[in-house]
Amino acid sequence: MSDNKTTSEGRDPALFTLAKGQKAEMIAAMLDTSSSSKETVRALQRKLYLKAKQQPSFRFYSLYDKVYRRDVLQRAFDLVRQNKGKSGIDGVTFESIDSGMGRTAYIEEIRETLKAKTYRAMPVKRVEIPKRNGGTRLLGIPCIKDRIIQMAVKLILEPIFEADFSPHSYGFRPKR
């Protein structure tokens, strides 16, 4: 029987042949929140930037709740994944997240630990990398979960500080 049959004796739609847990992940993937999270995070960053730019003496007292917003964590996940870094000390890779609990559940787990204020960063994996002169230097590789949270914090803080930086400063700044 051909896999591309569409007649009544053909194969079942993929969604109905998946296990229960896989269905939710498949539906979430079909909804593709990555593009909408990119837009909502960009809108949030714009608001933070404008507030900081228009009111330089304003103090941002409540930013922590923005770090664990779903859209911020989803965007952070996407950005960390694009970097294609290695796994940290826990050995978790993006492939193991995809084949295990899935992206949505992984992000939700991070969100809940941040919201409950129970999150603790893991130790950094230390790797020696060779230098040109024959020596080595130590490189620290945080686990994926830590990198996602660091990226979420960066997404929130960066627009606030960008408003204060000199337009003539270029080091370690986005799009400069």
TrEMBL record:
<protein>
    <recommendedName>
        <fullName>Reverse transcriptase domain-containing protein</fullName>
    </recommendedName>
</protein>
<dbReference type="InterPro" id="IPR051083">
    <property type="entry name" value="GrpII_Intron_Splice-Mob/Def"/>
</dbReference>
<dbReference type="InterPro" id="IPR043502">
    <property type="entry name" value="DNA/RNA_pol_sf"/>
</dbReference>
